[in-house]
Amino acid sequence: MKKVVLIASILLVAGISGLFAQKPQINPIPSFNYPVTSLMTAFQEQKYHGAPQREKREIEVVISSSSSNPGQISAQIWLVKENALMMQGPFTIYLDELWTSPIDNGQWGVIVKCAYPVMVSVWID
């Protein structure tokens, strides 16, 4: 059992290290219909919301594609807070599916990873 936990921990650390080693291009939030053709692209809020402005905010992500086989296309996304100090995910989203997550007033970002070219829209409501 200890070997399984050790191996799982090593694989998790290696996966997260590989995620950060790729240095994705960073785009602003909001971004609408941004073409994602590389394996990984990041979106980041440009301003910090330190003082509470609203009680509730949500980050929203949608992917779309012009592929002839839309049933097979999905993307993995990670929700990242303040330069990867806090990370949630991966979450899998499919074409034209609205993914939302509640967020606080910190500076948030999203990392999108996909195997096929897609268009990504990311905004905060």
Task: Describe the protein.
With 125 residues, this protein is of the alpha+beta class. The chain has one domain: Mitogen Ypm (Jelly Rolls, Sandwich). 16% of the residues lie in helices and 49% in strands. It has one helix and nine strands; from the N terminus they run αβββββββββ. The strands form two sheets. It has a five-stranded mixed beta sheet, with no helix packed on it. β5 and β6 form a beta hairpin. The longest helix is centred in the N-terminal third of the chain and has 20 residues. It is globular. The termini are far apart. The mean pLDDT is 78.
SSE blueprint:
Layout: H1 2-21, E1 25-29, E2 31-36, E3 40-45, E4 57-64, E5 74-81, E6 86-94, E7 99-103, E8 108-114, E9 118-124
Parallel strand pairs: 1-3
Antiparallel strand pairs: 2-9, 3-8, 4-7, 4-9, 5-6, 5-8
Indicate the structural class: alpha+beta
Order of helices and strands: HEEEEEEEEE
Which second-level CATH architecture applies? Sandwich
Helix content: 10-25%
Query: Within the largest sheet, what's the order of strands?
Result: 1-3-8-5-6
Descriptive labels:
four-stranded antiparallel sheet; five-stranded mixed sheet; Jelly Rolls; alpha+beta; 1 helix; 125 residues; 9 strands
Provide a brief overview of the structure.
The chain is an alpha+beta fold.
